[in-house]
Amino acid sequence: MKIINKQNFDEITSKGVVLVDFFANWCGPCKMLAPVLEDVATTMPHVTFVKVDVDQEPGLAGRYGIQAIPNLVIFKDGQAVDQITGFVGKDVIVDKLNKLL
């Protein structure tokens, strides 16, 4: 999954359904969630999956009220429409994404 920053964030999240994983390299649950997201990404080609490192981009984390990580924010055509905080299984993520496709 591609790591994005404030320079390309708005452009990437502006079209279609985009799942943004707000994470940090030191976060254990974030490391546990990464392979789950990779798996979901391979089964959902119509969704864009990207990551934002909260330590590198605190402004973006603040913009979306990220208080805890991992935190998944789902965008549809530039608008944040759903959010998942903490580690969850593949079925929870797929269910939320399917409602937006």
Topology, pairings included?
Blueprint: E1 2-3, H1 9-13, E2 17-23, H2 28-43, E3 47-53, H3 58-63, E4 71-76, E5 79-85, H4 90-98
Parallel strand pairs: 1-3, 2-3
Antiparallel strand pairs: 2-4, 4-5
Overall pLDDT confidence: 97
The backbone outline, from C-alpha atoms, is: globular
Top-tier CATH class:
Alpha Beta
Low-confidence stretches: none
**Structural Rg:** 12 Å
CATH superfamily: Glutaredoxin
Alpha-beta classification: alpha/beta
Major β-sheet profile: 5 strands, mixed
The count of helical stretches stands at 4
Which architecture would the CATH scheme give at its second level? Answer: 3-Layer(aba) Sandwich
Number of domains: 1
Q: What share of the residues lie within helices?
A: 25-40%
Alpha carbon gap, first and last residue: 20 Å
Describe this structure in words.
With 101 residues, the chain is an alpha/beta fold. The protein has a single domain, classed as Glutaredoxin (3-Layer(aba) Sandwich). The protein is built from four helices and five strands, in the order βαβαβαββα. The chain has a five-stranded mixed sheet with strand order 1-3-2-4-5. The model has no long low-confidence stretch (mean pLDDT 97).
Keywords:
5-stranded mixed beta sheet, alpha/beta, 101 residues, globular, Glutaredoxin, 4 helices
